[in-house]
Please model this.
Amino acid sequence: MITINLLPPEYRRAHRVPIKILAATGAAVAVNASLLVWCAWTWFGLRTEVLGELQVRQDDLAALKPRVEYHKKLEEEKKSFESREETLAEINAARINWTQKMDELVDVINRGGNGEKYLIWLDDLTVTQLAPSANKSKGKDAPIGSVRSNGHSGSPNFGLVANFFEDVSTSTFAQGFFPPAPPQGRISSVDTELIPSETFSFTLDLQIKPQEPGKAKAGEAKKAPQPKSK
Amino acid sequence: MDERRHFLTVTIGGSLGAALLAGGLYMIHDGIDKKRSELAEVEVQISQARGLVETTPKLEEAVIVHRETDEAVAKILPNDRDVLEFVRRLQSFAFEAGIRMTSYDDKQDVATRDAKKTDFQRVGYKLQLQADIFGLMAFTDLIESDERFMRVPAFKLKAAPRQKLEELGTQPLHSVELEVETYVYAPRSSSKPVEIEEYETKRDLLRARIGARQRELVHTPYDYQGPRSRRDPWVDPRVPAGAVQEGELTIEQQFDLVDRLSEEAKAVAALMEGWQSSDNLIAEMKARGELESRLAALESEVRRLDAEDQLRFLPAERRFEQEVVLEVERIRQGLKDIDGAALPLSMLREAVDAMYGHMQRREYDLALEAYKGIEPRLQAARIDELREPLVALLREYAEQARTVQAFEELQLDIGCIVDLGPDQRTVLIDGRSYWPGEVIDADLMVKSIDRSEVTFIYKGVVLQRSLGAAEEKPAPKAAQPAQKPRK
Model:
């Protein structure tokens, strides 16, 4: 059905936007405007600030980079020096001063006097020492070498050999060795053409102790001998 | 209807717009969050970098110290292999130690075994040599004390056979097989040293640390003192039982002899102690006299034993060297040291008084005995201006005493004095007449003649002899007796 308003215009009701639509439109505009402002603030304010800060930090980092590289190069150089010294320390830690050891053994043997305590002489001396790396596979407590010597005691009294072994064990010579095995020997054939005519033969067998941990620290064992003034 | 459409259009359009804006907002925030996390990451990196850079000065110092001490390390482990130098050095050590090297073998296996594993290559040599134990120790000491790192990882010593000892009659040489190793530094990758700003200035500031580090790298080697009269334990010390021939000493006799000499050496040492602790000059002179005579006798016996080579049994010989020879040397050296020191003034004055007293009492023998006690010290001692007049006086007294003794020994047959008036006397000596002023021989002159005495000048000393002195032999008196020294 078509409704026609025949009233003169001055009597007709005025045409107005319905309140509902107005309210909806207003709300939509308000929400969208707020969101737009928020977006603008986030984009132009917050984001720019963060980006600016990031840029500053990146610049800082870039400025530090050459110094960091310099530091790393120095570290590399230091490591190469340390590696050399550590290897030297390892090598040196495995070194035994055999002059000192032989000198101490000669001292011990001469301490026997004229035979009152003992009269000892030796036929040979065999010293073997493993390389530091060679011993790793055998365990940390395994001997790193040995000192072996066949000797004679100028007396039929085997107790004098025990005296000698006791002196060896308590001397500085025994430092760095495992304790020697108890003395064993046999009487040699009596030679009446020599004085003393009866002698005991024995074997002195010593095992070299492995280097104690910590002794091979860099800087401790890598010392070079000071040349002697002759 | 229009109204409704409008409403729907506005509502849906508004909602869509809001949704779009919300989505955009979400995306912007997401982007910002990412940037923030990136920022946090950069800040961590910066913080790490700063932490690293803060330690750079210390690292620089460590590198500078390493570089400066590397010279010392390079001496221990040189960069070059330089095997020829290594061999030359071994040869010079052998020469210095007085041993005979018979072969050199390069231990190639050692070098190839380690070459691929580390930056260090082992260079080894197997040497065969002949030496007594002390020569060998001198050689290994030179190797182990060298500034270049060298080690002896293994060696075998085989004692010289007993027959050789008997055949040669000298110290036999043992056969030795010795391994010597050194290491050379051969870095597989070489890096250029970093350029450190103001290196010299920084290095100068670290001088003390560098010095300490260099000292740390250098240690005192073992102090090998040589044989020190010890026997070589690789020499059979037994002696042949039937080797004692006529004139040679048996082992018991050798030990007895060494025992006796050792006791005598101890007695002389005790005498020396007694002499040093004497509380007066007379006791000191007596002790010194006895010490000198017994020491001289002991020295003479030591020399004789050395020359005659009577001590053949090595233990006896070693004991002789240790207990007698070294002791005698020690005492003699001790005497030299004491004599070399300045004499106390009080002692010199006491000696002058003692000699003066003897001279006054005409005890010329005792005066000379007193002088004998102090004479060795006068010769060796430091004489200064204060001591010089006293020493001169002592020597003068001694000379006078000797002259008087020599004059006493002179055989002068004084026959008679012929008196022809005052100042006109002549004396008959050995059958010939002499006037005052006449020379009898080069050292002797007649000075004056009295009624019963003749005065002579003998070696510059005025002496008198009475008539008939040949029979009585009276003690002549010094015409110019020793004058009391001024103190």
